[in-house]
Task: inverse folding
């Protein structure tokens, strides 16, 4: 966890590094903004690492139900982190923000795996260039 402004504990960055699945050995940075309405309002979360993922669009918006309609005040920042980790282990093509990635995952799992690997190494998937985010 990183606090860009040490006097502002409501805005921070977090790194997720999956150790299995399609995104194994990737390094993904998320920005969290916890508003004054927390815990009644969900934190705002953006992926700062461009990623080829059905549930994260190219602007970093994240499709995670507990950040939207399923948010409850009993949920915590840890709940959100677990949800983000789960998205990397089990991408959900049925609730996509990146419809192209979702369609490839549904139609051709092997091609999806190749596209994820290509994007994490740094390179183009279609017309989109991805910066390297692979740690090994």
Result:
């Amino acid at each position: 966890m990183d606090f860009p402004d040490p006097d502002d504990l409501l805005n921070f960055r977090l790194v997720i590094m999956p150790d299995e699945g399609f995104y194994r050995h990737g390094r993904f940075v998320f920005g969290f903004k916890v508003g004054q309405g927390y815990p009644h309002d969900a934190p705002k979360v953006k992926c700062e690492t461009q990623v080829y993922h059905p549930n994260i669009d190219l602007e970093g918006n994240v499709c995670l139900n507990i950040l939207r309609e399923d948010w409850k005040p009993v949920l915590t920042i840890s709940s959100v982190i677990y949800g983000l980790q789960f998205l990397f282990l089990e991408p959900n093509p049925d609730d996509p923000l990146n419809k192209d990635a979702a369609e490839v995952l549904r139609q051709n799992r092997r091609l999806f795996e190749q596209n994820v690997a290509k994007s994490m190494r740094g390179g183009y998937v279609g017309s989109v260039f991805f910066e390297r985010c692979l740690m090994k």
Summary: The first helix runs from residue 77 to 89.
